[in-house]
Structure formats: structure tokens, C-alpha cells
Specification:
Blueprint (H helix, E strand, L loop, with lengths): L1 H5 L5 H34 L10 E3 H8 L4 H10 E4 L4 E4 L4 H22 L4 H5 L9 H13 L9 H14 L3 H18 L4 H54 L3 H6 L2 H26 L1 H16 L4 H45 L1 H6 L3 H54 L4 H42 L21 E8 L9 E8 L4 E6 L5 H7 L8 E6 L2 E2 L5 H6 L1 E4 L8 E2 H5 L8 H10 L3 H5 L8 E2 L8 H14 L4 E5 L7 H14 L4 E5 L3 H4 L4 E6 L2 E6 L1 H7 L1 H10 L2 H9 L4
Parallel strand pairs: 6-13, 6-14, 9-12, 12-13
Antiparallel strand pairs: 1-3, 2-3, 4-5, 4-7, 7-8, 10-11, 14-15
Main location: membrane
GO molecular function: ABC-type transporter activity; ATP binding; ATP hydrolysis activity
Membrane topology: Multi-pass membrane protein
Length: about 725
């Protein structure tokens, strides 16, 4: 996980911006259920009346209500209203939301009591708020009897206040929702009595609330779009940076590091694994950050409703966590296997595509198909298992969510019946519950994907943290050499994972103007020796010096800039002939390119092409022959005009005539350079100034052709096996041209 988060450090400013936008999105998302609840409870049920405290009240009701108030409440009541003579009614002075809520809290219960009493069918209770002296003796006697039934003394100086307390006690059993509904019904009756248009009041409220909902929705949509944009931009940046880091790191790998990771694995790590990180980065920024904000906001709103149904959410979250826990235990090991299986499929695919001609030549198509089918089948089975496990998750979680909705409705129905909850509150509670569950669900869904991304991140980190064995020393020299004298001083070499030396006690010196040939049987270490010079590998013991300086003390760039290297297999890049020849010498002019091509004996086939030097070269040089590919590779090295030439068996695909012509043309060009030729054919190296004969990694012969024929049995056997008696005799006598 830490590797995934480390990739986001660079984009901290985007993360902060996304977090701010998510807060805005969550605020809007969490506000909508409240508005829905208000539309139902206030707009539909209460006709648009939002508060229990009426903004307009008739003079009669105003004075009658005062009879139910204590001294302090009476003062607050009088301070709250002002009399409007033209309307013969009282109007609320301050209609701010905070003030109205404060007045609702103070007078809501007494308003509900008054409305309940004034709505009684019994005429005595209807007139209780009026002047009792206007009642007939029979009415007064009946009233006294009823008051005694409620436990109120008819002679009490605070008769109406005492009666209010009795009714408040009775109302408390109905619940806050019912009490609020009574008070708002009184407000509606007063608005009607004051001549207000109740239909307009309701319509205005519905339009006002609807407009707020639309505004919130639009703001939420804008925030969500911006979050998606910045999250995608950040994740794309993370992917780009990782690919760049991997590419840069791999470019600095020596052959030892390249052998540690297979080509197929490196390709997978720089593509599929980076894609996993990129995808999870988007999810982290869009879902993981949003889920807790949404869940916490939902919990706060649910608690504020004080509905007593919070246990349903706890139950739902517990069930969701259990389901996800089971799935993680079952599916996680398979996710860890998946990346290795993808590597395997890529490896086999690459081998088949690269060796397609060989496969066809040996009629192995069926066998290779079976090998691919096996790898592909293993990957398919693992993916099917994980996908089936994950496909079980969604129905199970939807069942939990719908089950919770039914449970909430069932519990809320009883509370609505008891008057302690309104329908809109139930609707909002269901919505908030779904938000909370979805928040946990998003976190758990991401937690399922994180292990696979964590595996990918570790694989990428493994590449990035691989210690490079071939690197510049602390004070590496950057000045180019003057003479290019190369000396092997008792060099031993073995591969990192090898137990025995591949080369042992190699000791010789090559000077400018000399051609040093390296020959030996297959597997004797010829190419390995050549690769030590440009530091593709470092020696195990001994040292290689360039003008007396250990090449490990020379910067890699400086060392390799003086070398023209032609590998065993001609490697070309997509582009044209010009770009391939000038690959190592970007500043070379057209004349230099043509000269290099002419020396490499490539001019003839180049001139035969319609576009000449601008002829296209396909990826890997697949549209040219092996000999043409080799000649272009040689031209590329010549164009660089280096001080050291290394031809690693680079003439093997050339016919004898072309080989001879190329070496003759090459000699004047390399007269001041040190030339190394790794060869299989004796005819290629007959005139070399120094021939090194290798046998099982050991230097068994060193000298000219004539010297080695006399002193080195191994060389003489190689020469006799390749040359006819006449050629062999002529080569000894110096007649071979």
C-alpha cells in the first residue's frame, strides 16, 4: 500500500483539490435526503408550513394563547409579535430561520395544546380559552367537573397554565412528530383566518425546495465531473511517471540485471502492472476518499434524527463486512497468482511470435498451441474463479441493502403509527442508511482490488530498487582516451548466478592500429570476452584497462562513446536506413552515412531500393535479409568513427567475397583504431595482428596465424577443419589474400 501512496506524493496539490471537491459533492449528496424529507413532511403533509410558530396570527388567537403562558413566556410572546392595524392581526417581527427555530422550541408545545383544545367537539373546551364568566351556570358547573377529572383546581389563579401542563403530558405520549403536526396545523388555520393563500404558500415552498434540490444536484454533478477529471489526470500522471522510471531503470540495467528479469516480465511490469496502479489510483481518489466522507456525514445526519433505528445500520454494516471478509479469504490468494500467470502467458506468446518461422519449419504448431492453451487455461481458470466470487458479492450486497430498507420501513411504520416519526423522516433515514452502507461497500470493493495492485506495486518496486551492478564509480573519469590501448590483466569472469568461471586468467594487450581476433569453439567465452570491454559485465577478478586506466574508473558514457559495437545478431530499429546508420552518430552528415554504407558493402542493395537511404526499415529489421541486416549494423558502428571497434561474429552471414571486400575497405578506416573481431571462420582473421584462442574459457593460444599454427594445437585443428590443404598451406606461406 505504501508504494501506491508514494506515487501520489508528487501530485499532493491535486489530492487536496480533489478532497475539497469531494467534500462539496458529499455535502450536496447528504443534503438531498433532507430536502426530500421536507417536501414530504412540510410541503405535502403540512401544506408548506415550515415552522410551528405562525408568522401571522389573529388578534383573538394571539390573546387566547397568552392565557396558557407563564410570566416569562408572555414577555417573549409579546416581544416576538407586532400588531398590524390594517390586517387586525399580529405579525412576527423576526422571521430569520434561527429565530423561528428558537421560538418553535419555546412555544411549539403550548401552540399544539391550544390547537388540540380549540379543536375539541365539546363547546366548553372550545370556550375555555375565552371568558369563563360568559358561560351559563350549567356550563360553568360542567366545566368545573371536567377540570376536576383532569386534576385541575377550577379555582386556581393559573387555571389555563395548569390545564396546559396536563395536556402537554398527554401530548408527550404522541411523539414529537404529532406535536409538531398539531402546531403547524394551527399555523395553517391562522394563515387562512388572516386571508393568506394556502395553495400559493404550498406551491411556493415546493418550488423553492425543488430549486434548492436542482441547485444542489447541479453542484454535485459539477463537483463529481471535476473529481473524475483531476483523479484521471493524477492517475495518468502516476502511470506516466512509473513507466518513465521503469524504462529509465531498465535502460541502465546491465546484462546481469536483464537476465534476472525475463523480457516478458519486464514488459508486463511496465504495462499491465502500471495499468493496475493507475486504475487503483483513480479509485483511491474517487472512492476511497469519498466513502468515509459520505459514511461519516450519513452517520452524523442519522444521529441527528434521533430515530432510535441506528441499530439497523450497525447490523447492515456488520453483515456487509462479513460477506466481504469471506470473499477476501477465498479470492485473495487467486489475485496474487494472477500476475504470475499473466507473465507466463506473455512469455509464451512472445516466444511463439519470435520463433514462428522455426516452429513452422519443425511442424511444432500443435505442440506450441498446446503449451499456450495450458498457460492460457490456467490464467482463465483463476480469472473465472475470482470473477465468479466477485459476481456473488453484488447480489449478496444488494440483498443486504434491500433487506435493510424493508427492515427500516417495518420499524419506522410502528414509529409513524405512534406519532414519533414522520414519513419524510423515514424516507431520509432509508437514503442515509444506503449512503452509509454504500460508503463501506466502496471501501470493501477497493480493498478487494488493492491486493492485486499491491502485488503490481511490489513488482514495479522490485525493478526500481534493483541494485545496478554496472555503474559509474564515485570519481569516474569523463575525459576520452588518446590512444585506446586495451589491456586485459589476468581477468576472471563468472555470471552472477554461476558457480564456475566462464573466463579464466585472460591476459593480453591490444594497441591502436592492431586487429585482435578472438576464436574458439562454441561456448568457449568469445562473445563474453568482447562484452567485458564496453562493461556489459564487470570482471570478477583482475582488471581491464584503457590507456592504463581501469575501465571501472571511467564513466560508462565516456567509455561506450569510444566504442563501435556490432553484436552477433544484427539489430535494427524501425525507421529508415538513414536513421539506423546514423543511430550512434546523430550529427553525421549524408556523406558520412554513404561512406559508412560503402565500407560495409551495403551500398549495392541500398541503391537497388526505390527510396534508397530513405527506405523504411520495419521493427526488428524484418524486411531485410540477415546479411543486409549485418551490413547495416556494421555501417552503424563505422559511422560513429570510434577508437575501438568490436565485431562480435558480425561477418557470419556474409559470403566470402563480401567478407573479403568489407575487411579490405574497413582496414584504412580503422588504421588508428583498436579492432576486436570475434569470429568462427579462420578465413576472416587470417591477417589479424593478434589472435586469441579460447578453449573452455581459458586462453590457450595468443599470436599471429602463422605462430598459432605452430604453437597451438587447438587453433591448428580449427584451421585444418575449415581450410583445404592448399588454403592452409597458402595461409602459412602468406599467400592468402
Amino acid at each position: 500500500m505504501k508504494h501506491i501512496f508514494e506515487n501520489l506524493k508528487k501530485y499532493w496539490y491535486f489530492v487536496i483539490l480533489i478532497l475539497a471537491l469531494l467534500v462539496v459533492q458529499a455535502y450536496c449528496d447528504l443534503s438531498l435526503p433532507d430536502y426530500t424529507s421536507n417536501i414530504i413532511d412540510v410541503g405535502i403533509v403540512n401544506g408548506g408550513v415550515e415552522h410551528q410558530m405562525p408568522e401571522f396570527i389573529t388578534e383573538n388567537s394571539y390573546n387566547s394563547l397568552k392565557l396558557f403562558l407563564n410570566e416569562q413566556e408572555t414577555k417573549d410572546w409579546d416581544n416576538a409579535y407586532e400588531f398590524i392595524k390594517s390586517d387586525k392581526a399580529y405579525k412576527l417581527k423576526n422571521t430569520d430561520k434561527d429565530n423561528l427555530e428558537e421560538l418553535d422550541s419555546e412555544f411549539g408545545n403550548v401552540i399544539a395544546v391550544y390547537y388540540m383544545m380549540s379543536s375539541q367537539q365539546d363547546s366548553q373546551f372550545k370556550n375555555m380559552s375565552g371568558n369563563a364568566q360568559q358561560m351559563t351556570p350549567e356550563q360553568q358547573q360542567e366545566m368545573a367537573k371536567k377540570l376536576q377529572e383532569f386534576g385541575v383546581d377550577p379555582q386556581s389563579p393559573t387555571l389555563m397554565y395548569d390545564l396546559r401542563k396536563v395536556f402537554e403530558k398527554k401530548l408527550s405520549s404522541l411523539g414529537d412528530s404529532t406535536i409538531s403536526s398539531y402546531a403547524k396545523s394551527f399555523a395553517k388555520s391562522e394563515y387562512k383566518a388572516c386571508g393568506k393563500d394556502l395553495d400559493k404558500l404550498q406551491t411556493d415552498y415546493m418550488f423553492k425546495t425543488g430549486a434548492k434540490m436542482i441547485s444542489m444536484t447541479l453542484l454535485m454533478v459539477i463537483a463529481a465531473i471535476l473529481v473524475g477529471f483531476f483523479a484521471s489526470k493524477t492517475a495518468a500522471g502516476v502511470g506516466r511517471d512509473l513507466r518513465e522510471k521503469i524504462f529509465t531503470k531498465v535502460m541502465s540495467f546491465s546484462n546481469a540485471e536483464l537476465d534476472k528479469f525475463s523480457t516478458a516480465s519486464l514488459i508486463t511490469r511496465s504495462t499491465n502492472d502500471v495499468q493496475q496502479i493507475q486504475m487503483v489510483s483513480v479509485m483511491l481518489l474517487r472512492m476511497v476518499l469519498y466513502a468515509p466522507i459520505l459514511a461519516i456525514g450519513g452517520i452524523i445526519n442519522v444521529v441527528n434524527y434521533s430515530s432510535g433505528m441506528e441499530w439497523t445500520i450497525v447490523l447492515a454494516v456488520a453483515v456487509v463486512v462479513c460477506i466481504i471478509g469471506v470473499l477476501m479469504v477465498v479470492a485473495m490468494p487467486k489475485f496474487n497468482m494472477m500476475q504470475k500467470l499473466v507473465d507466463k502467458v506473455n512469455l509464451i506468446s512472445r516466444e511463439i511470435l519470435t520463433g514462428l518461422s522455426v516452429i513452422r519449419a519443425f511442424s511444432r504448431e500443435k505442440k506450441e498451441e498446446e503449451r499456450f492453451e495450458e498457460a492460457n487455461g490456467n490464467l482463465t481458470r483463476v480469472m473465472l474463479f475470482t470473477n465468479r466470487a466477485m459476481s456473488f458479492m453484488m447480489p449478496a450486497l444488494m440483498f443486504v441493502m434491500n433487506g435493510v430498507s424493508v427492515l427500516i420501513i417495518w420499524v419506522a411504520a410502528k414509529k409513524i403509527d405512534q406519532g414519533v416519526m414522520e414519513v419524510g423522516t423515514m424516507t431520509a433515514f432509508i437514503t442515509y442508511s444506503m449512503m452509509i452502507i454504500m460508503g463501506f461497500l466502496m471501501l470493501t470493493m477497493v480493498s478487494i482490488m488493492l491486493p492485486r495492485a499491491a502485488v503490481a506495486a511490489n513488482r514495479i518496486d522490485e525493478v526500481l530498487k534493483t541494485e545496478i551492478t554496472i555503474k559509474d564509480s564515485h570519481n569516474a573519469l569523463t575525459e576520452k582516451t588518446n590512444n585506446a590501448v586495451v589491456k586485459f590483466d589476468h581477468v576472471d569472469f563468472k555470471y552472477a548466478d554461476g558457480e564456475e568461471n566462464v573466463l579464466e586468467d585472460i591476459d593480453f594487450e591490444a594497441k591502436p592500429g592492431q586487429t585482435v581476433a578472438i576464436i574458439g569453439s562454441t561456448g568457449s567465452g568469445k562473445s563474453t570476452l568482447a562484452k567485458l570491454i564496453p562493461r556489459f559485465f564487470d570482471v570478477t577478478n583482475g582488471k581491464i584497462t584503457l590507456d592504463g586506466v581501469d575501465i571501472r574508473d571511467i564513466s560508462i558514457e565516456t567509455l561506450r562513446s569510444q566504442i563501435g559495437y556490432v553484436p552477433q545478431t544484427g539489430i535494427l530499429f524501425s525507421g529508415d536506413i538513414n536513421s539506423n546508420i546514423s543511430y550512434g552518430a546523430p550529427g553525421i552528415d549524408e556523406a558520412g552515412i554513404k561512406e559508412a554504407a560503402q565500407i560495409a558493402q551495403a551500398t549495392e542493395f541500398i541503391e537497388d531500393k526505390p527510396d534508397k537511404f530513405e527506405s523504411a526499415i520495419a521493427q526488428g529489421g524484418t524486411n531485410v535479409s540477415g546479411g543486409q541486416k549485418q551490413r547495416l549494423s556494421i555501417a552503424r558502428a563505422i559511422a560513429r568513427n570510434p577508437k575501438i571497434y568490436i565485431f562480435d561474429d558480425s561477418f557470419s552471414a556474409l559470403d566470402f567475397k563480401t567478407d573479403t571486400q568489407l575487411r579490405k575497405a574497413l582496414k584504412p578506416k580503422t588504421k588508428d583504431a583498436t579492432v576486436f573481431i570475434v569470429a568462427q571462420r579462420v578465413s576472416t582473421i587470417l591477417h589479424a595482428d593478434q589472435i586469441l584462442v579460447l578453449d573452455e574459457g581459458k586462453l590457450v593460444g595468443k599470436g599471429t596465424h602463422k605462430e598459432l599454427v605452430k604453437t597451438c594445437e587447438t587453433y591448428m585443428q580449427i584451421a585444418k577443419s575449415q581450410l583445404s590443404e592448399a588454403e592452409f598451406a597458402a595461409s602459412i606461406e602468406g599467400k592468402e589474400d
